[in-house]
C-alpha cells in the first residue's frame, strides 16, 4: 500500500457493522468495494439505499455511493486493505462458528498482493486471526505471511474488533478508541496507519490474541454486570422491594454503579460473546456462565410474572410496550421483549395488544395469535394493564395522569412515580416464583 495515497479498501460483509464501516471509510476519501453474498443487499447499496436501520446511515450511504466512493458487489476485486466484518454465531452447544470468517479469507486470498493489509473485525474466539492467517498461507504459498517467515512478510494481518453501540454506530465508529492486535508488531503498525485515516479515538496496538480476548471481555463484563442487576430485581420481587429505589440509593456510593434490570439481555453480542470465553476455558468460567444463566432466567421470570398477572385479571385488556431488544432502536433480533410478548400473545390472543413504534408490522410469530398492533395513545385509552418491556423514550415520557389508573408491570423501571405497580400485588410474586 502506498503511504502517500489513499488505499483502496474492500469490506467483506455488509451487515450492521460492515456497511457503516464501509461508508465511514468511503467518507474519509478511500475508494471502497463492499462484498456481500446477497445480491439483494448489493443491489440495494448500489442504488444508494440501505437494508438495515441505523441513525443517519441512509444519508451517508447515499452520499458516498453517488460520489462513486462506495460500490457493492458479490465478486471480490484487488484492494490494498481488506476489512472482514462477517457474523460469528455459535451452535446449539454454544461453540463458536468461525466458518464465515474462514470463507471470507478464502474469498480474498486469490486477490491478495504484496503490501496488502488484512484486518478481521468480527467478534472472534481467541486464535481466530491466526487460523485466518494459516488459511491464507495455505492458499497462497507464493506470499510470505506474518509469523510464518523470517523475512519481511509480504502482507500484514491484524485483528481490530468493532465496539460500536447499535443506534450510535456512526458516532462511535469515529470516536471510540480501538484495540489493534497484529499477528506481529509490524502488522499492528500497518493496521494502525489505516485506522488513523478515519478514527478520531485513540488507537492502541497489541497482539492479535489479546485484541480478540479484549472484545470478548468487554461484552462478558457487561453481561455479568447486567446479571447482577437482574438478580437483584428477582430478589427484590421476592422481598416486595422496589429494586429501582434500592439501586438508585446504592449508586450514590462513590464506588458503586449498578446497571439497570430489564426483561433479559438481547441483541447479538452480549448474549453470545461470553460463551466464546466459556468455550475456550470451561473450567475457569463459573461466573461468566452463571451470569448468562441469570440473564436468560430473568426473561423466564418476567414471562411467569406477566402470565400470572394476565391470568389474575380475566377480561382485562393488556398492552405490551415494546418489542425491540433495547431502547430507541428498531432491532428485534434476539429480543427478550419480543419473546415475552409473543408468549403472552399465543396464550391470551386478542386480549394482548402490542405497541412498538419502531415496527411497521408485527413479527411473524404474532401471525394468527389474535394479538394486534396499536399505538401508545390507543393503549393508554383502551388497555387496563400495561407491561413495559422496552424503555423507548416515547413510553418514558407518558405523564402519570395518563396512566395513573392502570395496573403496570414495569420491567425497565421507567415510571418510578407509578402508583399501582405489580410488585405491590404479593400474590402475583408468589404465583410467579
Ligand atoms: N441491558 C440491560 N440493562 C442495562 C444495559 C443493557 O438490561 O443496564 C440490556 C439491553 O436492554 C439489551 C442488552 O442488555 O437487551 C444489550 O444492550 P447493550 O446496550 O448493553 O449492548 P449492545 O448489544 O447494543 O452492544 C454491545 C456493546 N458492548 C458493551 O457495551 C460492552 C457495544 O459497545 C458492542 O460494540 C456491541 O455489544 C457488539 O457489537 O459487540
Automatic annotation (TrEMBL):
NCBIfam families: NDP-sugDHase (TIGR03026), PRK11064.1 (NF008286). The lineage of its organism: Bacteria, Pseudomonadati, Pseudomonadota, Alphaproteobacteria, Sphingomonadales. SMART domains: UDPG_MGDP_dh_C. It holds the Pfam family UDPG_MGDP_dh_N. Belongs to the UDP-glucose/GDP-mannose dehydrogenase family. The keyword Manganese does not apply. InterPro entries: 6-PGluconate_DH-like_C_sf, NAD(P)-bd_dom_sf, UDP-Glc/GDP-Man, UDP-Glc/GDP-Man_DH_C, UDP-Glc/GDP-Man_DH_C_sf, UDP-Glc/GDP-Man_DH_dimer, UDP-Glc/GDP-Man_DH_N, UDP_ManNAc/GlcNAc_DH. GO terms for molecular function: NAD binding; oxidoreductase activity, acting on the CH-CH group of donors, NAD or NADP as acceptor; UDP-N-acetyl-D-mannosamine dehydrogenase activity. GO terms for biological process: polysaccharide biosynthetic process. Residues 319-417 form the UDP-glucose/GDP-mannose dehydrogenase C-terminal domain. Its EC number is 1.1.1.336. It is an enzyme of class 1 (oxidoreductase). The keyword NAD applies. It comes from Novosphingobium fluoreni. Keywords: NAD, Oxidoreductase. Coiled coil: none annotated. This is UDP-N-acetyl-D-mannosaminuronic acid dehydrogenase.
Amino acid at each position: 500500500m502506498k503511504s502517500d495515497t489513499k488505499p483502496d479498501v474492500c469490506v467483506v460483509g455488509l451487515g450492521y457493522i460492515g456497511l457503516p464501516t464501509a461508508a465511514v471509510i468511503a467518507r474519509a476519501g478511500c475508494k471502497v468495494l463492499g462484498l456481500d453474498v446477497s445480491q439483494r443487499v448489493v443491489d440495494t447499496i448500489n442504488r444508494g439505499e440501505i437494508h438495515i436501520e441505523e441513525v443517519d446511515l441512509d444519508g451517508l450511504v447515499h452520499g458516498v455511493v453517488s460520489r462513486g466512493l462506495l460500490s457493492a458487489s458479490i465478486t471480490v476485486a484487488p484492494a490494498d486493505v481488506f476489512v472482514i466484518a462477517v457474523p460469528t454465531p455459535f451452535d446449539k452447544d454454544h461453540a463458536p462458528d468461525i466458518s464465515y470468517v474462514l470463507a471470507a479469507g478464502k474469498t480474498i486470498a486469490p486477490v491478495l498482493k504484496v503490501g496488502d493489509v488484512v484486518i478481521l473485525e468480527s467478534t472472534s474466539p481467541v486464535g481466530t486471526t491466526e487460523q485466518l492467517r494459516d488459511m491464507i498461507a495455505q492458499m497462497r504459498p507464493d506470499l510470505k505471511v506474518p509469523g510464518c517467515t523470517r523475512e519481511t512478510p509480504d502482507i500484514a494481518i491484524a485483528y481490530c474488533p468493532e465496539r460500536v453501540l447499535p443506534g450510535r454506530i456512526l458516532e462511535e465508529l469515529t470516536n471510540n478508541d480501538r484495540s489493534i492486535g497484529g499477528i506481529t508488531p509490524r502488522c499492528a503498525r500497518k493496521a494502525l496507519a489505516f485506522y488513523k485515516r478515519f478514527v478520531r479515538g485513540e488507537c492502541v496496538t497489541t497482539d492479535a490474541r489479546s485484541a480478540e480476548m479484549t472484545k470478548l471481555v468487554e461484552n462478558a463484563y457487561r453481561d455479568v454486570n447486567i446479571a447482577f442487576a437482574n438478580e437483584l430485581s428477582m430478589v427484590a420481587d421476592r422481598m416486595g422491594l422496589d429494586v429501582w429505589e434500592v439501586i438508585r440509593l446504592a449508586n450514590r456510593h462513590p464506588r458503586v454503579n449498578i446497571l439497570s434490570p430489564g426483561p433479559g439481555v438481547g441483541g447479538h453480542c452480549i448474549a453470545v460473546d461470553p460463551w466464546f470465553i466459556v468455550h475456550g476455558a470451561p473450567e475457569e468460567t463459573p461466573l461468566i456462565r452463571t451470569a448468562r444463566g441469570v440473564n436468560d432466567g430473568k426473561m423466564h421470570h418476567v414471562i411467569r410474572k406477566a402470565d400470572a398477572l394476565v391470568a389474575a385479571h380475566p377480561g382485562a385488556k393488556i398492552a405490551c410496550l415494546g418489542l425491540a431488544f433495547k431502547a430507541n432502536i428498531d432491532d428485534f433480533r434476539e429480543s427478550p421483549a419480543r419473546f415475552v410478548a409473543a408468549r403472552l400473545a399465543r396464550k391470551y390472543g386478542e386480549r394482548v395488544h402490542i405497541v412498538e413504534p419502531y415496527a411497521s408490522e408485527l413479527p411473524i410469530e404474532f401471525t394468527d395469535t389474535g394479538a394486534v398492533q396499536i399505538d401508545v395513545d390507543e393503549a393508554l385509552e383502551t388497555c387496563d394493564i400495561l407491561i413495559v418491556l422496552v424503555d423507548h423514550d416515547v413510553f418514558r415520557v407518558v405523564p402519570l395522569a395518563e396512566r395513573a389508573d392502570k395496573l403496570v408491570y414495569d420491567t425497565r423501571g421507567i415510571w418510578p412515580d407509578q402508583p399501582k405497580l405489580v410488585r405491590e400485588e404479593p400474590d402475583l410474586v408468589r404465583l410467579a416464583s
